[in-house]
Specification:
494 residues; alpha+beta; 5-stranded antiparallel β-sheet; 17% strand; EC 2.7.13.3; phosphoprotein; His_kinase_dom; kinase; transmembrane
Length: 494
């Protein structure tokens, strides 16, 4: 049988409650009875002794048992709660106040009698009930002597059979039953109140368990799963746990979506790269086949042209493969940074010199501002050279003839420099600015000038700058140009 947490707690609470009630009731009744017997025995402790001293039949030690029985009967009529017995020194019952046939014992144990005589403070002490072989009662006792010779004991039972009968009749009274009924009702009400409180306290746990089951059934996706609302105003452990679980599941769901998106982008990248690799390979293969099959029929000029195109295709393949490996190493964290202090201006002019011939052929103006860039920086010189080269090459490809490209260096404070590479090219659409750093993404208005581009340059720039604790940003206006900027820590001169 599968029980919920509340049901298990409720059953356990009912069992424990009933057990405690029974234990408390039994203990209270026993304590009440013991206290009652203690008080009654102390109250009537000297009763037997006074009877011995005040009655000549007993005091003189010469006994007429018939007269003694009549005396006991008279005393019992005066005190119905008492039963009178005279026993000899061996515990044999010689006479008594009861009706014939009522007494079931012929002897009683004298040890309790002697104990009470010697130590009256030990009350309550229980002695044998002559009317019931399995029962004991509180009593009063006094020894009876004749010329200093022990003749026996006057044994008085306190609360005899008549007293018990009267007490049971009182206990059966309707008022007592009504009081007991009210007490029982109060206990039942207390139990119900405790169960309601228990339900109230365990309800958030049940809601949390249902939420976890929903999440599991939805394969840990919370997109279409409606979960309970755990208030941030409540600071109990269950609400804190519920909020933590929901935050954890939300984060897991986001990571799943990121992995799915990353896997989708990776597949798209592989598709694009396969296309990019296939195009120069097909061109290279076609020209080489022409050279191989018709080499003797081609003129020297045609052969040189075919070889030149084939070499260009080989160069594009090499660059594309290098970019693929570089991006893979970046994503896997396999590229290390070796920071050093160097002059930023010298590196910028080296990069400008590398592209000056290409820019001159296209009629572009390459400038550095300020012209004297004496700024010491702390970075990886090789990785920074790669970033600047990619950005300048990108600007040259997207700037039409007669345009200009400038590298600006700005000091923001004593610790930071900003490097900006701007052009007057075709620009980038505003809705494409956030996507241009994705691998293989190319703006819709990009100019490749007959060269096959993998679209990995900006993704590599972003990854390299991130390794150097820098971040690249872009601003662009369609038809007017684009500006890429990033920050570098400056070496403070002392």
């Amino acid at each position: 049988m599968n029980l919920s947490l509340y049901q298990k707690l409720a059953v356990s609470l009912v069992v424990i409650f009933c057990f405690i009630c029974a234990l408390v009731y039994s203990w209270s009744k026993q304590l009440e009875l013991t206290s009652k017997h203690h008080g009654e025995q102390n109250l009537h402790l000297a009763l037997a002794e006074h009877l011995v001293q005040d009655n000549p039949l007993i005091k003189e030690g010469v006994y007429d048992y018939a007269a003694l029985e009549n005396l006991f009967h008279t005393l019992m009529l005066l005190g119905p709660a008492f039963e009178f017995y005279f026993v000899d020194e061996n515990g044999k019952i010689l006479t008594y106040s009861a009706e014939p046939g009522k007494v079931k014992r012929t002897h009683i144990n004298l040890a309790p009698l002697k104990k009470l005589i010697n130590n009256p403070d030990a009350a309550p002490i229980y002695g044998d009930n002559p009317r019931n072989k399995a029962q004991q009662k509180i009593f009063s006792v006094a020894p009876v002597f004749n010329n200093d010779k022990l003749q026996g004991y006057l044994y008085v039972i306190i609360g005899g059979e008549a007293y018990d009968t009267s007490l049971n009749t009182i206990k059966n009274n309707d008022k007592l039953w009504l009081a007991a009924l009210w007490l029982g009702s109060a206990l039942v009400f207390l139990l119900i109140a405790m169960l309601i409180l228990l339900r109230f306290f365990t309800n958030p746990i049940q809601r949390l368990a249902r939420d976890v089951s929903k999440i599991e059934a939805a394969n840990y996706s919370i997109t279409d799963t409606k979960l309970s609302n755990y208030s941030t105003q409540k600071s109990n452990e269950v609400h804190s746990l519920g909020r933590s679980i929901q935050a954890m599941v939300t984060r897991i769901d986001e990571q799943f979506k990121e992995l799915e998106q990353s896997d989708k982008q990776r597949k798209e990248l592989l598709t694009h790269l396969s296309h990019d690799l296939r195009t120069p390979l097909a061109s290279l293969q076609g020209f080489l086949e022409v050279l191989n099959q018709s080499g003797a029929q081609l003129s020297a000029k045609e052969q040189r042209e075919y070889l030149h195109v084939s070499l260009n295709n080989c160069d594009q393949l090499k660059q594309l493969i290098e970019q693929i490996f570089e991006l893979a190493h970046l994503e896997n964290g396999e590229i290390s940074i070796h920071k050093e202090t160097f002059n930023l201006g010298e590196l910028i002019y080296d990069c400008i010199a590398k592209f000056s011939l290409t820019a001159e052929k296209k009629g572009l103006n390459l400038t550095v501002e300020p012209a004297i860039c004496d700024f010491p920086v702390v970075a990886d010189i090789a990785k920074l050279e790669r970033v600047l080269s990619n950005l300048i090459d990108n600007a040259i490809r997207h700037t039409p003839k007669g345009g200009s490209i400038a590298v600006h260096v700005k000091r923001i404070d004593q610790k930071q420099l900003f490097v900006q590479v701007s052009d007057t090219g075709v620009g980038i659409k505003h809705d494409e600015l956030n996507a241009i750093f994705n691998p293989h993404y190319q703006a819709s208005n990009s100019h490749n000038e007959g060269r096959q581009q993998g679209g990995l340059g900006l993704a590599i720039c972003k990854g390299l700058l991130k390794l150097m604790d820098s971040e690249i940003n872009v601003q662009s206006e369609l038809g007017k140009g684009t500006m890429f900027s990033f920050n570098l820590p400056q070496k403070i001169k002392v």
